[in-house]
Amino acid sequence: MSRGIRARIDRSALTHNLRHAKQSAPKSRVMAVVKANGYGHGLVEVAQSLSEADAFAVEDTGEAITLRRAGIEQHIVLLSGFHDVDELDAIARWRLSPVIHDHWQMEALRGENLTETLSVWVKIDSGMQRIGFFPRDAPRVLQALESLSNVRIDGVMSHLANADDLASPATRRQCRVFQEAVAGCSYPRSLANSPGVLGWPATHMEWIRPGMMLYGCSPLRDNTEADLGLRPAMTLESRIIAIKDAPAGAAIGYGGTWRCSATTQVGVLACGYGDGYPRHVPNGTPVWVNDRLGRILGRVSMDLTAIDLSGHDGVRVGDWVELWGGNVAASLVAAYTGTIPYELVCRLGNRVPRIYEP
Ligand SMILES: Cc1ncc(COP(=O)(O)O)c(C=O)c1O
User: Fold this and answer.
1) Domain 11-217's class?
2) CA 17 / ligand 1 centre spacing (Å)
3) What's the whole-model pTM score?
């Protein structure tokens, strides 16, 4: 039996958003990023809904093998590559493509006697100072990989650090650094994440790597989902399990951070931080109750959250309330919470059932 919380996943929204990515970068192939359990939406179901993608990208070998076992046939790229040489056998056997980003991985490949061809991507750090070879090392690294038998280079990639901010000069700089670093080779290039796809055409190149936009959350700081033509794929909903009239002066929840100035009809939802709804949402964070905006009252607890039902006539125990989705964007809740929608959807708890809708 459900506790009264669910995440409805709209498969048609995923397909719509993928097509939107393709239309935004019509000359590029699409590597759909489905890591972190499909950004919390469900790894296999998301990949199946995104069957028009040319490739998938995940973080670790386990997720990649899960996709293969589910019958996913596209290329699967491991964005952080292999973490241990012991993984290489499985990687080759399951036809996965690790990203090679560090010299220790080069050493490991040199020392391995690969019996099957391993296809790899090479990552260049164009300015983020995260993973990737320095641009000056790119020619040497590519040459070294080319000299290894049974290693095939599928492409070169880099990652953008500031593309969500259309006013930032960093993206143009990263784009230039990356292009110069790989100018001497003819491998397919990949730079654009979702903000790159939607905001920076020069980053499109041969492969785009959208994640967040596929799930229908705005990846651009100053644009809403609606501005960008994206459809939210996830609607997080919880049921009202109790309604009460709190008297004037009553303090609601742990710490009593909300005090009622008048008698207030309070609804209690079967949802809390144990489900991944953030504990630190402030008083007044919006929810959607029976076709109208409502608001959170007091602190979110592990399993329960109070909302203000004043002025919401006809609301009953058992009614569903949207915490984020088509009416209250995850990016709006994220803004109230001081985070990004990526974190909200990725942290949605395992105990929240995902309901897949066509
Ligand atoms: C290497 C890499 N490429 C692409 C993406 C997708 O980014 P976004 O979700 O902003 O589209 C990510 C996400 O973190 C990433 O780490």
Assistant:
1) alpha beta
2) 15
3) 0.96
